[in-house]
Amino acid sequence: MYSSSSIEGNLYGFSEQEPQRAPIGVFDSGVGGLTVLRQIYRQLPNESVIYFGDTARLPYGIRSQAEILTFVRDILDWMRQQHVKMVVMACNTSSALALDIVREEYDFPILGVILPGAKAAVQQGKRIGVISTPATAKSNAYRQAIWEIDPNVEVWQVGCPEFVPLIEQNRIQDPYTTEVARAYLEPLIQQDIDTLVYGCTHYPLLAPVLRSLLPPQVKIIDPAVHVVTACTQELDLLGLSNTHPPLPTRFAVSGCPQQFSQSGVNWLGYTPLVEAVDFAGIPVSQLQQDLA
Known about the structure:
The active site is at 91 (proton donor/acceptor), 200 (proton donor/acceptor). Belongs to the aspartate/glutamate racemases family. Its EC number is 5.1.1.3. The protein has helices at 34-43, 65-81, 92-97, 99-102, 114-124, 134-139, 141-149, 163-168, 175-190, 207-213, 223-238, 257-268, 286-291; strands spanning 2-4, 24-28, 49-53, 86-89, 110-111, 127-132, 154-159, 195-199, 219-221, 250-253, 274-279. It is of the alpha/beta class. Helix 1 (34-43) crosses helix 11 (223-238), helix 5 crosses helix 7 (141-149) and helix 5 crosses helix 11.
């Protein structure tokens, strides 16, 4: 189904008798999931991580559920070959459209970002705005998750199709990005929201822009923080927490490794060594062609 330039099989060399030392798999369509990776570094410093960015097929937010399911299964099949002990879907679109289905298909725990984000939002406010990809907004996943916790909370959702491409193209400081953000936030500000949820793991990378446009009293929820807290609890519950020093994070992408490495240094503080995974017959997105 796929091949890798050098990532093959049990790359960490741990014993099956030491499952605690197995890595956590983290994946996203691109660099957005690095916000989750940074939280793992902070909250779970002993854990080894394999990070995968499906950059050849981003953005996910305009894809159908059938496409997302295919992509997610490709990635999870590959993660299984890397002998991960757990996978974090650092992608709201995947969490909204595929999580419940694939949880039944794989023998390792898979965590999504939506429920932890919804729980955190309900603890903070009663008038909640959610910015997300169009696919996540259309799924109503955040509204449903929030209402299951507290049906009296009001929720407004805005799909933001331009954010992920702008972030992947390193255009965060571009004045055009500020104008796009202003247009997306305006209907939420008009509703007098008291809490804003980043409904896409890319969006914390826009924090300075978004914060400058929001009223100061609006609280911001980053689900990346809360999914890693849930990950910590799950590892403890399953007896899979690693007490040994971690191994270096491994990075792999389906698109251009050099492009990801250049983008990643801005968010990681170091230049990651990135390897390519080739999913057979993968259709390269127009955005990835533009980035090349």
